[in-house]
């Protein structure tokens, strides 16, 4: 797996908690408020803590999450699809939320992975600053590298708050991204994937 997919280590080291809180105070002033008023006194501390959760994907180790695979599935070798995996991410351009769902399908090669692990991978990459394209590719590469399936398909549909709340202000528009690798490069497999994603 390439470096971007693996655990990321900040190049210049992490700032201290105090530095992070001071940065929040600067942004509060930039927004036009007074960081010293009562309601905002604890906000820098809360924001620093929230960032640890919202961006916890930088500290996560994808390889260890995807480490457990198993073969004993009675010869099952057809598509496994986990659809509608909800996620929250943040766009790397504006640092505002991306809200979406991921659908992950793969064709096993005599080996499967725990279903929850697919959702965990979405969380790891979601909890980083992202573009939707990169997140789609990273999820695909991580699973492909851990499981070596015959094929993998990943689709993400998401609303970007940077397009809804600000800028062009088009709320409700959805962006779709897909990657199809291995057997899913065949159009018939792509149709089967899409039919299963959309079917209810
Ligand atoms: N391709 C891609 N673009 C994204 C994603 N998230 C946000 N963007 C876009 O990133 C672009 C950044 O454009 P810039 O012109 O540098 O920034 P900006 O002036 O804030 O752009 P506006 O959003 O148009 O106001 C915008 O068009 C966003 O819609 C994403 O996941 N993928
Ligand atoms: Zn954005």
Ordered list of secondary-structure elements with their pairings:
Layout: H1 17-31, H2 43-54, H3 62-65, E1 69-70, E2 80-91, E3 97-107, E4 112-113, H4 115-126, E5 129-130, H5 132-147, E6 151-160, H6 161-164, E7 175-182, H7 187-198
Parallel strand pairs: 2-5
Antiparallel strand pairs: 1-4, 2-3, 3-6, 6-7
Helix pairs in contact: 1-2, 4-5
Guanosine-5'-triphosphate (GTP) binds next to helix 5 and helix 6.
Quick summary:
By secondary structure, the protein is an alpha+beta fold.
Sheet with the most strands, sense and barrel status? 5 strands, mixed
> In the residues, how many domains can be counted?
2
Helix content: 25-40%
Q: In whole angstroms, how far apart are the ends?
A: 35 Å
Query: What is the class of the largest domain in the CATH system?
Result: Alpha Beta
Which series of helices and strands comes N to C?
A: HHHEEEEHEHEHEH
Oligomeric state of the chains? single chain
Q: What's the CATH H-level superfamily name of the largest domain?
A: GTP cyclohydrolase I, C-terminal domain/NADPH-dependent 7-cyano-7-deazaguanine reductase, N-terminal domain
Summed over residues and divided by their number, the pLDDT gives a mean of 94
Binding site for Zn(2+): 91, 94, 162
Catalytic activity: GTP + H2O = 7,8-dihydroneopterin 3'-triphosphate + formate + H(+)
Keywords: GTP-binding, Hydrolase, Metal-binding, Nucleotide-binding, One-carbon metabolism, Zinc
Subunit structure: Toroid-shaped homodecamer, composed of two pentamers of five dimers.
């Amino acid at each position: 797996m390439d470096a971007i997919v693996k655990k990321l280590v900040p190049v210049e080291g992490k700032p201290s908690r105090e530095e992070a809180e001071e940065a929040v105070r600067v942004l509060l002033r930039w927004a036009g408020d007074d960081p010293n008023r009562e309601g905002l006194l604890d906000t820098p501390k809360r924001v620093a803590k929230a960032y640890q959760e919202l961006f916890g994907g930088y500290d996560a180790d994808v390889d260890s999450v995807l480490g457990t695979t198993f073969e004993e599935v009675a010869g099952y070798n057809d598509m496994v699809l986990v659809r509608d995996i909800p996620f929250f991410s943040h766009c790397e351009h504006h640092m505002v939320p991306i809200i979406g769902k991921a659908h992950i399908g793969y064709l096993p090669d005599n080996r499967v992975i725990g279903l929850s692990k697919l959702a965990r991978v979405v969380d790891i990459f979601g909890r980083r600053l992202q573009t939707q394209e990169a997140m789609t590719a990273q999820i695909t590469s991580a699973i492909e590298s851990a499981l070596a399936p015959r094929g993998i398909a990943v689709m993400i549909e998401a609303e970007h708050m940077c397009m809804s709340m600000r800028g062009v202000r088009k709320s409700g528009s959805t962006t779709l991204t897909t990657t199809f690798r291995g057997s899913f490069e065949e159009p018939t497999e792509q149709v089967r994937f899409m039919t299963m994603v959309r079917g209810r």
